[in-house]
Amino acid sequence: MLDQSKIDSLRTLPVTPQSLFIAGRWRPAAAGEEIDVISPIDGKPFARIARAGRDDVDAAVTAARKAYEGGSWSRMAPAGRKKIMLRIADLIEARALELAVLGVRDNGTEIGMALKAEPGSAAATFRYYAEAIDKVYGEIAPTADTVLGLIHREAVGVVGAIVPWNMPLMIGAWKLAPALAAGNSVVLKPAEAASLSLLQLAAICAEAGLPEGVLNVVTGSGSQVGEAIATHMDVDVLAFTGSNAVGRRLLEYSARSNLKRVYLELGGKSPNIVFADAPDLDRVAKVSANGIFRNSGQVCVAGSRLLVQRSIHDELVERLAHVAGALKVGDPLDLASDVGAIASAAQLAGNLRFARQAEDEGARLVSGGERILEETGGFYQRPAIFDRVSQEMTLAREEVFGPLLAVIAFDEEADAVRLANATEYGLASAVWTSSLSTAHRMVRAVRAGIVHVNTYGGSDLTVPLGGHRQSGNGHDKSLHALEKYTALKTAWIQL
Length: 495
Known about the structure:
A hairpin with a 6-residue loop joins strand 3 (34-38) and strand 4. This protein is α/β, with parallel strands linked by helices. The strands form six sheets. Strands 14-17-18-13-12-19-20 form a seven-stranded mixed beta sheet, sandwiched between helices. A five-stranded parallel beta sheet has the order 9-8-7-10-11, with helices on both faces. It has 15 helices and 21 strands. The longest helix is centred in the first third of the chain and has 22 residues, at 111-132. It is 39% helix and 20% strand.
């Protein structure tokens, strides 16, 4: 049970200026520059982080390469790597509340969700891949009896990882844990707006015994640090979660440099499809509201398009409005808050523009959408439901990354499929129906990396998360994630 007094004791702890973590040491940026960290809770600065440049990235990559070639981690026995990664998981769990509160101060996620999704998920991820280290085998090819064909899986070398601001510890672990499990060294760039929890993770990894240089963390802007990692000739693989525009740029950087493998988890405009035979409309309304309004809609798999069969449209919209209206938006470190803050002033301004544009284009505002709690100095927005949305409207096509839900009515199953697949994205989706046949047909028909049936969200580490089409390539989570961080090598042996 979360204790409000413990949360309150952590929320005001001073945060010392944060340095870069390179070659197992904390050091300032080469240029001596720093960045103010603004809390979305009250709009005030509460910390400073180093602003790295190209020289710092080069130092981090050099340290990572030296560690990889030296073999302190890459050639460590799997049992040894496993032991250290399990220790990392234990330390994350031991400091879970501290990490969660720090992350909330950084990006505004409501504390109940943050505790589970950030340190809780990160610890589970490190434990999952630690246990996988000694359970992934090579292969023996079916060759002629005069030849032995062995297929080895090797670490790729140096991995660059660029992580977003919305769930930095969770998504960071999704990149780091499988990359480390495979024996790689890593250069990690957190988001400029949310770096603090990943810097703490670096300290935890060092305490757990991860050899120096195996993990390096460089903070700063995407235009400087991100570009320097993506264009570096000695980075072998780049893993990124973020916007489509940046993803395209990273592919260009790969082509301009060493043709490094680039894995992208990008945006979404995920359809949540409700048929008239959905088993429980109250549950549909509650789960669908959580699917778009948790973390103020700042979730890549958010169910931002609600496609509702026309015969139940009015009833479901009414129930959904009731659920949304009951959500308490407020201080994300207050256990009474259901929804926290928008991550930044810029993000809030963008959300408000989307809301105004939706009304201008003819959508009907059912509830919410306005900025609230402005007197706190923080960045808060009431969850918004827009009805009578057509597929031509901006709100139906573009990712908002905020608490704005577009409701679109449909008549027949074919219409639902057409609408679901009408965007450039293909990350997540859901289908609500009592018909097993309908469920199976929709799973096949909807072009998305994950199709929920009679639920939304909550998939665990046992299944991959990745997108289709312009939602990206490659997958986080599951054993399939290891494929991104390994290379195949064939030994062809004449007997």
